[in-house]
């Protein structure tokens, strides 16, 4: 190769590189700009959707419900907090007032006290809820109870108790609030289900069954009410660092009273509450809030059920739990 031809090739290569970078850099910068603009629009949309919205949260006095109250209050929602303990709800309101950002427009929450597991009182509770602001924009069915025990040693009444709180309670409240949403052609119904609404693991039969039923009901609801402009969101978190296992019921109806190792290592409830806020703001329909292993288990259960069944049987043998443990 002569020196002249080498220089020509070098010059051509340099021009090619200049041309490539001259086209690629603006494209990359433009793509980043579009992405940032999209994210900004999403955040603006979320704030606009939540600001001034009437939001009902059940099980608001503790755990994930309490953290949801914090983030929705900070976002400017008009909260209606529901639970069984009036004193704890009032304490939460005081906490929200004291922690409020003076630069952010917030509202003093209302409270409605009732036992969600008693479906006979849900209709009157719904009337009280609707009287607070005249309507409900977002209903978050959060209240629930967990369970630990073997099927052989579990009383049928325990199954009924868990199903009553986790399934029939949210169904009754949703159906009591729903007609007002249909009339207004607007509304959003959310429910905190569980990964165990998609897969079942040993020693959680009553809990997994109630969450499977919850998933099915709200999937049906989503299809039926879309024509009325009503959104439905189902959240399926994995382990959350709350007192859920401490308050879980066992096979004879007594309290479990212990913090699971997995629960202790679970996600921060505030982090989960913030994810719920963002997803509701975007009107997401089905939200999985779990790590890679639960997600993998869901795929295995769907694509290779025989392998999933073997893994669960092996897990049951390894845990070797005593009765009602």
UniProtKB/TrEMBL annotation:
Pfam families: adh_short. The chain crosses the membrane at residues 21-41. InterPro entries: KR_dom, NAD(P)-bd_dom_sf, Sc_DH/Rdtase_CS, SDR_fam. Residues 53-243 form the Ketoreductase domain. Signal peptide: none annotated. One of its GO terms (molecular function) is oxidoreductase activity, acting on the CH-OH group of donors, NAD or NADP as acceptor. The keyword Secreted does not apply. It comes from the Eukaryota. PROSITE patterns: ADH_SHORT. GO terms for cellular component: cytoplasm; membrane. Keywords: Membrane, NAD, NADP, Oxidoreductase, Transmembrane, Transmembrane helix. The keyword Oxidoreductase applies. GO terms for biological process: lipid metabolic process. Belongs to the short-chain dehydrogenases/reductases (SDR) family. Putative oxidoreductase. This is Dehydrogenase/reductase SDR family member 7B. It comes from Aldrovandia affinis.
């Amino acid at each position: 190769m002569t020196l002249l031809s080498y220089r020509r090739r070098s010059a051509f290569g340099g021009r090619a590189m200049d041309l490539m970078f001259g086209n690629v850099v603006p494209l990359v910068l433009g793509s980043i700009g579009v992405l940032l603009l999209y994210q900004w629009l999403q955040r603006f949309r979320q704030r606009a959707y939540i600001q001034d919205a009437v939001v009902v949260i059940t099980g608001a006095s503790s755990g994930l419900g309490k953290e949801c109250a914090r983030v929705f209050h900070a976002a400017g929602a008009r909260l209606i907090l529901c639970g069984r303990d009036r004193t704890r709800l009032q304490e939460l309101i005081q906490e929200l007032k004291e922690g409020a950002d003076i630069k952010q427009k917030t509202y003093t929450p209302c409270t409605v006290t009732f036992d969600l597991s008693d479906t006979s009182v849900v209709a009157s509770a719904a009337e009280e809820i609707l009287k607070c602001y005249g309507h409900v924009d977002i209903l978050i069915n959060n209240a629930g109870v967990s369970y630990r025990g073997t099927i052989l040693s579990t009383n049928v009444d325990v199954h009924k108790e868990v199903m009553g709180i986790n399934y029939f309670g949210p169904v009754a409240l949703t159906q009591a609030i729903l007609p007002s949403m249909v009339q207004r052609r607007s509304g959003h119904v959310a429910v905190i289900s569980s990964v165990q609404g998609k897969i079942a693991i040993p020693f959680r039969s009553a809990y997994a069954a109630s969450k499977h039923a919850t998933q099915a009901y709200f999937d049906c609801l989503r299809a039926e009410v879309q024509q009325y402009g009503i959104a439905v969101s189902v959240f399926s978190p994995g382990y959350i660092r709350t007192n859920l296992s401490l308050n879980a019921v066992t096979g004879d109806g007594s309290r479990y009273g212990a913090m699971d190792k997995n629960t202790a290592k679970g996600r921060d409830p505030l982090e989960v509450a913030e994810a719920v806020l963002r997803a509701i703001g975007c009107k997401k329909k089905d939200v999985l809030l779990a790590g890679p292993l639960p997600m993998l288990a869901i795929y295995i259960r769907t694509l290779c059920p025989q392998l999933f069944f073997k893994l669960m049987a092996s897990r049951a043998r390894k845990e070797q739990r005593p009765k009602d443990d």
